[in-house]
Specification:
heterodimer; A: mainly beta; 6-stranded mixed sheet; B: mainly beta; 4-stranded antiparallel sheet
Chain lengths: 112, 113
Amino acid sequence: DQQVKQNSPSLSVQEGRISILNCDYTNSMFDYFLWYKKYPAEGPTFLISISSIKDKNEDGRFTVFLNKSAKHLSLHIVPSQPGDSAVYFCAASAVGSYQLTFGKGTKLSVIP
Amino acid sequence: DAGVIQSPRHEVTEMGQEVTLRCKPISGHDYLFWYRQTMMRGLELLIYFNNNVPIDDSGMPEDRFSAKMPNASFSTLKIQPSEPRDSAVYFCASSQGNNSPLHFGNGTRLTVT
């Protein structure tokens, strides 16, 4: 039973446009959410996070939105750049837990 | 900060052999995690340690898998005997806890033939 779902395995976007990556979760105990980026042959690297007490967190070109009632979060990248091409993982942890549950990832391709 | 260091980067072995994966976490990080990535199941948590003590090993698939952390700067994940279905990329990660993000190593790609 997947508790964190990324339903789009892949996404292609033109350079300069907005990339929107989506993530849904089922566990109502999750209270902390993160996005990781992964290049081939490397480990995932932390990108941005959001606590359940917020509905938006922004860091430069990256913004994460959280809709708790819908159990949905999204990552917006604007403007998208070719270097953003990677696999993006959504992850979540529950109250009092240090374990992260990951989605299966979305492969983003930014076309020059 | 050298980051999390894993060795070897690639391991090819025959079914039935023992495999040992190694990890050096970031200095000062109290938490160490072992994850496995496969196409079918994505990134799965196998086990994690806090201050060198295993806290949750419920993700370890079978008794063939074991993990140790003899000190704050070293951990091993051992598979004995290995099977073809163990083929995957194994990641080690460390963190300071308290909702601080995990820092991953570059992984060990294991192929069991």
